Amino acid sequence: MIHLIKSLPATSVVPAALGLILCSCASPRYSPLEQNVTPPPMVAAPVQPAPEVVVLPDEKAPVVGLDHIDSGPLFVPTNTVPVAAPAITFGRGWIPMSTWASRCALGKAERVVDGQTTTYHIPTRTGPCVLTIGSRLAQWNGVAVWLGFAPRMVRGEPHIHAVDAEKTLLPLSESQHVVPSPVRTVVLDPGHGGSDSGTRGPRNQFEKEFTLDWALRTERLLTNAGWKVFLTRRSDVEVALADRVAFAERVRADLFLSLHFNSAFPQTQPSGIETYCVTPVGAPSTLLRGYADDGQTSFPNNAFDSTNLKWAFRIHQTLLKETQAHDDGVKRARFMSVLRYQNRPAVLIEGGFLSNPGDVALISSPAYRERLAQAILQALQ
Description:
Helix content is 24%, strand content 19%. By secondary structure, the protein is α/β, with parallel strands linked by helices. The protein folds into 2 domains: 94-173, Copper Amine Oxidase, Chain A, domain 1 (2-Layer Sandwich); 180-380, Aminopeptidase. Strands 10-9-11-14-12-13 form a 6-stranded mixed β-sheet, sandwiched between helices. A 5-stranded antiparallel β-sheet has the order 2-3-4-5-6. β9 (185-190), α3 (207-224) and β10 form a beta-alpha-beta unit. α2 crosses α5 and α3 crosses α8. The two termini are 27 Å apart. 47% of the residues are buried.
């Protein structure tokens, strides 16, 4: 499961850098920053202007699985993070679905009524988009993608929110070629470790062991394919979230992937794969986990909103194809500190539910974890 910690008090004076103290421990904690690694050559990134922060209607996201709480950030955000402006913008508030389709799709939205459900099918360059009135769950090329706001009817015409149009639907309608640079440096982050075992299966199958095995298998495959790969941990040790973020900064990673497995205990029905990236400014998150989900807060990782989503979608789609797992969707969340402070595209993957008998049987199989690793390789190629 997602690795969470409690934050420092909001009144603390904390520098914007990541040299901070999270907590005191009786024994020293492992840090990947102590590894003897040589960062790749520095590549200058283009400076892009920050768009206007839009004040949007308050729409709350559903609360799911309050099994861990992250009560605040690792450091206080300044709300001055430069966010890359997209080539196409849609203003603020609600816009006609036809406006988005005319600018980003290949044809008009086709209305389909099935009982009490009204959906709109829109052809795009990267596959069909299906939007349902009153539902935040969309389908893109057959893959579940969660919106910030449910499409609605306004004066008899279907409307979508401008944030969804710009931050979700637009990136998905563009080319999925998102390999970040010739350097191709990726940090794999096996969730949990040491005294933090994460979740566990009914026979004491520990999440921390499965995530490490998954990361090591993925490292082997990516290295053979020409990627420069770093792991935040290579053994059963506990790693602070701040160290995971700072390590990716030190090695100047092009991409950060955090690997986890899920649980809905005591429920055993939920199953499948879900993939997360940080919520765009102005939208509610798909999942809260008790975090104060302020839609107007801008985190460092929001500078990569579009690229985050492209990576998340590609990885999620490939994982589903390789494993035939249940599709729990591409989702957005703000409570994941290991993502929101990244200065690079960052994605967190939940590779299945250890609380589900079918999922845990698969996850316990080395052959299945190899398929998970193969899926990441295919998505990154």
